[in-house]
Amino acid sequence: MVFTILLAILITTSSFQVFNYEYQVGLGLLGVDQIHREHSKAYYIDITPSEVNRSIDDLIEDVRTFSERYKYNIAITTSEDDYSNQENGYFYFISGNESNLLSHIIVKEGRLKESFFINDDWVISNNHLKKPSYLIDYLDNRFYDFDSTYKDSISIYPLSKIEEYYPSSGIQTLVTIFVDEYSTQIQETIFDYFQVYNYMNGPSGFFVSELGQMNNVSVDRELQPATVVAVISVLMLMVLTVLKNGKEIGIRYLQGQSTIQIIKKLFLKDIIGLSILFAFTIFCTAFVITDSYGTLLFMFLVKLIPFVLIYVFSILGCLFVTYFLVVKRTSNEILKSSMSIVPIYMLTLILKALSIIILLIPIFTRIQSIEYKQGHINSLTENPMVLNSKRIAYASKSPVDKDYKDYEKALFELVSQNDIAYANHDAYDFYLTVLKHDQYKNIELAMDGYVPPSVHINNAYLDYISITDETNRMLNPKMLSKDKNYILVSKERVNTYYNYLEPYMSNYEILYIQPNSTYVSANRTIAIPAGTIDDPIYFVDNVYSRGIDNFTVSLLYNGETNSLTNILERMDQEYDASYKVVKSRDIYELSIFEIKNDYLVCLQSIGLYFLILLIINYTSIKIYVDGYSKKIAIRYLNGTNYYNRYAMLINGSVFSTIAAFTYLLYQASGDKAIAAVLLGIFVVTLILEWITIKASIKKYESTEVSTILKGDD
User: Fold this and answer.
1) Which among 26, 136, 160, 514 could bridge 34 via Cys, Cβ 3.0 to 4.6 Å?
2) Higher confidence at residue 513 or residue 334?
3) Where are the beta strands (DSSP E) in 499-622?
4) Buried-exposed string 464-501: b where 16+ CB fall within 10 A, e elsewhere
5) What is the structure's pLDDT at 127?
6) Are 600 and 366 within 8 A, CB to CB?
7) Alpha carbon distance 340, 344 (integer Å)
8) Is the CB of residue 482 less than 8 Å from the CB of residue 530?
């Protein structure tokens, strides 16, 4: 009973995380598929009107005309990244049957939901500054990634209000078109109609995609393997229950009772009771852990129904299999309970080893995620100047071959003149991502004139970077001459980038960076000018370009607002570059929030692991002592020492544990953090196994051995 309750709680909480994450992906990233629930299919187009010298008003008019002409419902999504202004954030404008939003909102003013959409004066948001505003009903407001930063920034409006509420600085826009069925003809119609926004001459920009492609997100919080093993552990409990009643089953069978009579008499009460308890515990747990009490809660409970059915049918299936295994023995075997227990015991040990592996492998990625995010948090904590800065991402609107070199030179001069700390150029990073799309799989790209991603950095800010010379001797960045310029490049890339670097070699000294340098990845070249910085802007790494015909520069800034404004206007006017701004502290807080969730999932996984391990250990011990009861009693009577009485039990349990952890440690080789966690869990596992074995055997010998010796077996 206790195991059933714990299992129901763990399954509900793990499923709760999955449901929350999937709901957040649907609403937080797309903002449409959860809203237009009657439409299961949609196409989306990623559009930036300014790339083709068109305004957002042009796009709005084109979208409205398309909707009226082809009778499709439409949703438009955009965002502003300056979260210092609470009026900004994510904006969703929707058309069609808005009543589908009723399951997602909370109306606290006593207004009937049915009258909610009579007038177009509504706003759905968790931002109290939006008036009139109605809260979005999330299943658990505390869970979402955007809870700490973005939750209050999401707002949903009727499409009729788009001219009024569309943000002035909104740049990139997601247009979603809802259809009844996917078809090549519809996709081509959409592509042809919006062809006017196809700015890109290269392969990375304009295409019409199915919504399902964007929904294909890896749900790393999902604990499906753990759930599977949890169900298996319940089956083991049922096996144990049948074996425990094996003698009585055999006697009733020999007395001529039917299978139905035996099951009804011995197991029906347990099956019904455990099933009701399991379902009731799931229902109560869902109410306790959720903040929603409306349609969304009902949707979550519906998602849990399969687990109840799996539980019930698994118990029934396991019951019948084990039952027929028992009754097929001869009457002599039944009465003497002499059936060989070795195969069943070996099976439990194999299951135990597999369970350990299945349950602990998901922790690998979680620990790696924590390590990565914690390193980022530590670097920001140690550098308040960076933590309190703003990040500005630029995207050029002009072709690379026209303005890129001039633009790069200008940014380089800004570094030298102490206006910025370092500038990052990612002109061709799209090779790593976009070309996987089927629509462009046959396109061949010419590498002539290749410009590698590069970072221009002021030597006053080299503390983040590990630098070596040709002999791999580590260099102190502060000892580099301020009267010289340097190019830093990974040794792995120096030959690849030689043609690009050659023009610089007369004025720069070549040094080398380590692949894991903070803020600078291994495939970057770095040009370092001399000088110091008083009012720095940081151009940071890992910002992807929008395609082959433009480039992206990203920066962090912590100077005066007027100085920032002047630089932004200058770069926009002189180099035709659009930009977005976001505070570094928002990213910092988001990382902290995600780490807390990572720790929570790790603890949950470890807790589930120990619970299931306890079930398996208890089952295997019970199977062993029941199968070898007389031998154990005789050894006990003869004074055989403790270890020899239970050698197979102890050796089998320890061996299966060591085998599983050996495999896990081999897989984790090279990651000290994961290896340390596994070793800690391994030690605790052995201790708990020994305690479980010791306690179970002590109880068995104090209550059962005397009965066996009296001949009651």
Assistant:
1) 26
2) 513
3) 508-513, 525-528, 537-538, 552-557, 577-583
4) ebbbeeeeeeeeebeebeeeebbbbbbeebeeebeebb
5) 63
6) no
7) 8
8) yes
- The dihedral built from the CA positions of residue 52, 57, 60 and 63, taken in this order, carries a sign that is negative
Taking alpha carbons only, the member of 488, 580, 458 closest to residue 170 is 580
- Name the 3-class secondary structure at 452: coil
CA–CA distances in Å: residue 207 to residues 52, 106, 228, 354, 441: 15, 37, 39, 44, 13
Average pLDDT over residues 592-613: 79
Tokens of 636: 């006990």
Rounded Cα distance, 579 and 393, in Å: 5
HSE-up of residue 573 (Cα within 13 Å, Cβ side): 6
Q: Please count the other Cβ atoms lying within 10 Å of the Cβ belonging to residue 416.
A: 15
Q: Write b or e for each residue in 282-316: b if 16 or more Cβ atoms lie within 10 A of its Cβ, otherwise e.
A: beebbeebbebeeebbebbeeebeebbeebbeebe
- For residue 536, whether the previous peptide bond is cis, meaning omega lies within 30 degrees of 0, is no
Give, for 186, the enclosing helix (H) or strand (E).
helix 184-193
Mean pLDDT on 681-689: 90
Average pLDDT of 198-223? 46
- The values of phi and psi at residue 614, to 5°, are -65, -45
CB-count burial class (<10 Å; 0-12, 13-18, 19+) for 568? middle
Q: Where are the domains of the chain?
A: 31-215, 362-380+589-713, 398-575
Integer distance in angstroms from the first to the last C-alpha of the chain?
A: 27
- DSSP string over 611-680: HHHHHHHHHHHHHHHHHTHHHHHHHHHTT--HHHHTHHHHHHHHHHHHHHHHHHHHHTTT-HHHHHHHHH
Please say whether the beta carbons of 512 and 488 come within 8 A: yes
Q: Which positions ≥6 away from 85 have C-beta within 8 Å?
A: none
Q: Give the closest residue to 194 by CA, choosing from 65, 73, 303, 40.
A: 65
**CB 248: neighbour CB atoms within 10 A?**
14
CA distances for 587 relative to 30, 61, 217, 390, 552, angstroms: 20, 35, 21, 10, 20
List of residues 6+ apart from 594 with CB closer than 8 A: 145, 369, 373
CA neighbor of 603 nearest in space, from 371, 369, 366, 374? 366
Q: Bridge-partner residues for 508, per DSSP?
A: 485
Cα 213 to Cα 20, 33, 44, 203, 438, distances in angstroms: 20, 12, 10, 18, 11
Per-residue confidence (pLDDT) for residue 693, from 0 to 100: 84
594 or 246, greater pLDDT: 594
Cβ-based neighbour number of residue 605 at 10 Å: 20
Q: Looking at this protein, which amino acid is placed at residue 410? A: A
pLDDT in tens, 577-591: 555 555 667 767 777
- Find where tokens 């630029």 sit: 394
**626: Cα within 13 Å, side-chain hemisphere:** 20
CA pair distance 32, 94, nearest whole angstrom = 8
- The predicted pLDDT at position 683 comes to 92
The whole-angstrom distance between residue 158's C-alpha and the CA centroid of its chain comes to 31
Q: Which two tokens stand for residue 532?
A: 């110091």
525 pairs with which residues across the strands?
Answer: 454, 489
CA gap 499, 629 in Å, rounded = 79
Contact 172, 78 (CB under 8 A): yes
677 token code pair = 């966690």
* Strand 74-79, strand 90-94: pairing: antiparallel
Smallest CA-to-CA distance from 364 within 673, 609, 145, 613 is with 673
Q: Say which DSSP state 267 is in.
A: T
CA distance 287 to 299: 13
Task: Give me 422's structure tokens.
Answer: 């370092």
